[in-house]
Design goal:
The complex is a heterodimer of chains A (about 110) and B (about 110). Chain A is an all-beta fold and about 110 residues long. Helix content of chain A is about 0%, strand content about 50%. Chain A contains no helices and eleven strands. Classes of the chains: A mainly beta (about 110), B mainly beta (about 110).
Amino acid sequence: ETGVTQSPTHLIKTRGQQVTLRCSSQSGHNTVSWYQQALGQGPQFIFQYYREEENGRGNFPPRFSGLQFPNYSSELNVNALELDDSALYLCASTKASLNYGYTFGSGTRLTVV
Amino acid sequence: GESVGLHLPTLSVQEGDNSIINCAYSNSASDYFIWYKQESGKGPQFIIDIRSNMDKRQGQRVTVLLNKTVKHLSLQIAATQPGDSAVYFCATPPSGSARQLTFGSGTQLTVLP
């Protein structure tokens, strides 16, 4: 059973650019959530996708958007990058029937300069 | 809004001793709590959970205690080992959430030889 895989592992972008982060969910999981984790802080919920639609959103601006594909993999897109977007971005997957039974990936470390 | 917080940002214990990590929450309606362990360079890993109809739950070398009166929970690790060194988070779903989790800020546990 494969876990959650994220790519790339590290990324450096310039302020104002756009970035796409990718996540492959664990086998058998159909729900994907994205979290932002600033240095020294706990993860903060960005949004969740189920059946290719956004199914809940945290307190993040519209320049944070996502997609879920028929194979349940997902992308997180961030437009107009700001310095404060520098963080570890975590993807977590679960089966819709398993309340909160999330498996987290190791994350993508994004640095905005 | 919902919040969870940890009492100490860092905790150092001697190998073989017991560790106690604390967490407070704000919403008395919170009915489910999860403890996660995050090792350096990895995503959070599920340790143990507890529902509000329980006061105590035990796993392998870990025990979670829930005190609903003072809105406090703790994670106890017995016979702490070097592999237990990590950041520990408590998390809870906010009211009306679509399976999102609100995380505390974490406690860095360091096991001393």
